[in-house]
Amino acid sequence: MQYEKINSNLIWTSKGYGNTTAINLGGKIYIIDSTLNWKLAQEWKENVEEYFSEPVSGLILTHHHADHTFGNQVFSNLPIISSTEIWKIMNHHKKHIWIPEEIMDWEDDGY
To answer: Cβ contacts of residue 23 below 8 Å, gap of 6+?
Structure first.
């Protein structure tokens, strides 16, 4: 896993696995976008919590694309912040692609 430290933030720099960033908002750590799958999201969350020495406070979604949201279930016990439009799109499709149990069972070859 590759990331860059910029000021008090972590920027994901691994190529081909989606997009995510961790920001420190004065003692509250938020992750922006959850990357491509739950395994990557879990590893990222653990790295972020180790770097900041505190738990992640929540997840912020920029849009609904898979490389930004397919790790969402890792954050299911935290506040997830998005626009109303993102929520509507994800809620509409959740039976097909965002059901945590199904995604958690998904095995992939390169991640």
So the answer is: 8, 9, 29, 30, 32
Question: What is the distance between the terminal CA atoms of the chain, rounded to a whole angstrom?
Answer: 10
Instruction: Give domain status of residue 92, yes or no.
Output: no
Considering the domain boundaries, does residue 53 fall inside one?
yes
CB atoms within 10 A of CB 59: 24
List, for residues 56-81, the tens digit of each pLDDT value.
999 998 877 667 777 888 888 898 88
How many domains are contained in the chain?
1
Structure tokens at 62: 């920029």
Residue 83 falls within a domain, yes or no? no
Q: Is residue 41 part of a domain?
A: yes
- What strand order describes the sheet that includes 56-60? 3-6, 9-12, 21-24, 29-32, 56-60, 80-81
pTM to 2 decimals?
A: 0.75
